[in-house]
């Protein structure tokens, strides 16, 4: 991508390397071992990551859209943010010398676990966040994903992890079935609320205009302690360890017969990963080319002129009105989509994360709505394209970000790593869900 849009890395003209393990008898020499920073492991894991389209599980979607998330530095950069971590690779040692292979083989799979201390069921516990479990398409249906998951869980147990959790896309039924096989149960149905920062947002209510900014210290999240998955040490320690990603944190209070309070934190969501776009019908470079922009504008104006002329010469019946309205909406939608694409590709950053939302008291949600507007304005000024919040679809604070209840877009799955680690009341065959207002810290969402 050009300098105007450093967050977007466009993949163009890259060779579509495809290694067929069938050329190596049975591909039996697959070793699961720890990731080794500073070696060919990094290139191999990133190549695997680049093949993991966000929409590969949706039929025909990749024909129109192919995007994926890529770590900005080394492959283990996200895992290293946690107090402890596990990064494992599956390496085909029979494939040394094959296209795309490293010095000791071909990276055919990977999995990561970030380990942290957080609150769960009223106690401080060691939790693991499992992410980036991927298997090269030529190695699928060989139980390699199962081996990676089992190895990750075993490594987490050896580090004293009590429970493990993960997220999957709402449309990825195959992944949900895979994890159910290993005993994961539904913990939360979540929605990702992404607001394009295309227009300037309105002013905050007077009560919120007097908000107090919170320094990145231990008191940055006073309403959170004790909630499921809230960090045991608070957000302050996380802010101090990653000051470049913390943007700001606020609290708003209203005194009355019953005190109302709201708090919100804004975080740079592009800290460890970036969006790579290979195709949106065409490649990003094609969309941004001046000739393409001129052709699109010309086509829109031509269609608009034809529509206006047709309306002018038609008898004004119901069919004409309905057809004209539909055509006008289609043209308007196309123009809006073109404006959004042009806006996004001209911004310096992609995602600002609104995390740790809190609201209590009779006016808490209204205060939080004002804080969200304030956060979006600040994110827009800082060059972000989207402001994103991730909440449970039943979260009582959801109206502060969206008026209507949305459909779940991601599923939060959880599992105790042994009944001996679960509280006495949970040592049963059916482990209940985690609390639906579970809190994700910024590392889990980057």
Automatic annotation (TrEMBL):
GO function terms (MF aspect): acyltransferase activity, transferring groups other than amino-acyl groups
Offer one Pfam family short name for this entry. Acetyltransf_1
InterPro entries reported for this sequence: Acyl_CoA_acyltransferase, GNAT_dom, YpeA/RimI_acetyltransf
What residue stretches are annotated with the N-acetyltransferase domain? 30-202
Signal peptide as annotated in the record: none
Alphabetical UniProt keywords: Acyltransferase, Membrane, Transferase, Transmembrane, Transmembrane helix
What residue ranges are annotated as transmembrane? 318-344
Kindly indicate whether the keyword Transmembrane belongs to this entry. Answer: yes
Top-rank lineage group of the source organism: Eukaryota
Listed name of the protein: N-acetyltransferase domain-containing protein
Which source organism?
A: Alexandrium monilatum
**Upper lineage:** Eukaryota, Sar, Alveolata, Dinophyceae, Gonyaulacales
